[in-house]
Automatic annotation (TrEMBL):
Species of the source: Ornithinibacillus halotolerans
The name this protein goes by in its record: Branched-chain-amino-acid aminotransferase
Catalyzed reactions: L-valine + 2-oxoglutarate = 3-methyl-2-oxobutanoate + L-glutamate; L-isoleucine + 2-oxoglutarate = (S)-3-methyl-2-oxopentanoate + L-glutamate; L-leucine + 2-oxoglutarate = 4-methyl-2-oxopentanoate + L-glutamate
EC number: 2.6.1.42
Keywords for the protein's UniProt record, in alphabetical order: Amino-acid biosynthesis, Aminotransferase, Branched-chain amino acid biosynthesis, Pyridoxal phosphate, Transferase
Amino acid sequence: MNRDEYNRLIWISGKIVPLKDATINVLSPTAQFGANVFEGIRCYWNDTKQELYAFRLVEHYVRLQNSMKMFRMGNIYSMDELRQGLIDVIKANNYKEDIAVRQTVFIDGFGSWHSKEPVNMFIAPIPRKRLENSLDEGLRCCISSWERISDNNISPKVKVGANYINSRMAHMEAVENGYDSAILLNNHGKVAEGTGACLFIVRDGVLITPPTSASILESITRSTIIELARKELNLDVLEMEINRTDLYICDEAFLCGSAVEVKPIINIDGYTIGTGQVGEITKRIYELYLSAVYGELQGYEKWLTPIYQDVDRIEGVIT
């Protein structure tokens, strides 16, 4: 059965149900105050191996549990329960294509912004085709007038829905002013990250990215790229503070994240980055990243969770 936008299946409250039945109380703290934490998990279909791989699932769940802890939510889901729910709902939809999974833990019921319970969860797999022309055109970005939230506000380490209002404000301002996206500075005036994505630059053959103390998300894609660059490309990688002007004179720049994957930047505030074309290091990192997520890069199988291996029958699924 072809699962389109309206007949896909969702895991919610321990059951797999049609999308129309996956409802949330409009008076709940998550609906009224954004009281939720989440992960956006990518899964990639390898047609040769006839397998769907969830990428770095363990790391996503460690971060999700850390977000729940910092948000002072009761942790009622074990790692195995988080994983099994995702596998079950993907199998129920019979997805054999690239997908993105939104796994959200939220405060349900009729409480207020300070409520800790009841805790609930939904898992929503959605088809997500990879952009074939991701490297054809780079982004034109600006430095946002909006400051990146700091660890003393709502910590960027917490992947909470409300945090993305910060990125929303910056992105919408950039688009209104004719740019593709924005780069945010932190409260110390140093470069933090893009809108929903981490940032790397290349200068004199060295890959540079802001440290996790620079008001950035502890990004799984960022850590993936650091490891691939060091091990596969033998690049020097520095985690260091980046000034705004460092962006203007770098040789290459790109954003990265589970959603955006690897996306080059060719212009910032009207300054051409490098030659104005996608850089060679950016291209190699992009190729390595895709090779890893599709299970084609030898030595990185530890990052992959096969979905259909040892397929078992799922009881009680509405089809």
